[in-house]
Amino acid sequence: MCGLYSLTRSPQETRAWFKHANDADYPPRPHVAPGQPIGVVRMDHGERRFALVRWGFVPAWQKEIKPGKPPINARGETALEKPTFRNAMRRRRCLVPADGFYEWSGEAGHKTPHFFSRPDHGLFAFAGLWEHWMGADGSELETGALMTISPNAEVAAIHDRMPVIIQPQDYEVWLTGAVEDAARLIRPAPDGTFSVAPTTIARGRAATADPPRTRVRQLDLF
Fold first, then answer.
1. How far apart, in whole angstroms, are the C-alpha atoms of residue 8 and residue 15?
2. What's the rounded Cα separation, in Å, for the pair 84 and 144?
3. Distance separating alpha carbons of residues 78 and 219, to the nearest angstrom
4. pTM of the model
5. Residue 108 · residue 188 · CB < 8 Å
6. Is the pLDDT of residue 206 over 60?
7. What is the pLDDT of residue 136?
8. Which of 11, 81, 86, 5 is nearest to 41 (CA)?
9. Mean pLDDT lowest for which of 64-78, 104-118, 137-151, 206-220?
């Protein structure tokens, strides 16, 4: 699974990389966790636009927000089969900007976190799904999930799953292509895509070899 990632690049850098039409509005953060707002790039009236949704997927057909933790990941192998995700896989795919993600190894209680990033520490895109939920009382909520797949060589040494990475040349296919074409992009990232470094996490904060350049502030939208 992928349960913690980073986006420390500025909104201006994100817009330049993903070429969305509107401004991105988010505080750069070294730790983006489930239940928090996540940035997504999705299609809206024929153009790419940046939006914030809550990380934790609620399908549109669900009658009410259930207690507990909604799914944060969708298994790429079964997304088109599972009722929770299949409509979003067909109609509401998105890109999730990031510049790193975390995975843990070891036994429970003694796990070691590892930070994965591109060798140049640049931006990349997770494959994501988003959904719009409306309650009987008229309340509305947009949520999202990251897709996962079997790992490539770097991640396999640490964990048995990794997030699906969409390459820049495939952004348009993932966002607008037929579902059959998009499904072919659900695969492990090529070996060598990421470098990995052990890190330490205490009280929800991590220290890595490439510390965040931007001060983090809290964003509470939900």
1. 13
2. 12
3. 33
4. 0.89
5. no
6. no
7. 87
8. 11
9. 206-220
* Residues facing residue 73 across a β-bridge: 146
What residues are annotated to the active site?
2, 103
Give the whole-angstrom CA distance, residue 74 versus residue 35.
15
* Three-class DSSP category at 144: strand
Reported as type and span, the H/E element at residue 87 is helix 86-91
**Where residue 70 sits, what CATH number does that domain have?**
3.90.1680.10
Give the helix/strand (H/E) hosting 196.
strand 195-198
Separation between Cα atoms, residue 38 and residue 96, nearest integer Å: 8
Report which residue type is found at 148: T
Tens-place pLDDT, residues 78-120? 999 999 999 999 999 999 999 999 999 888 878 889 999 999 9
122 belongs to a structural domain: yes
Q: How many structural domains does the chain have?
A: 1
Structure tokens at 98: 């990031």
Residue 9 is assigned to a structural domain of this protein = yes
First-residue to last-residue Cα distance in the chain: 23
* Structure token digits, residue 29: 């953060």
Q: Identify whether 123 is part of a domain.
A: yes
Place of tokens 């079964």: 78
Residue 200 in any domain: the answer is yes
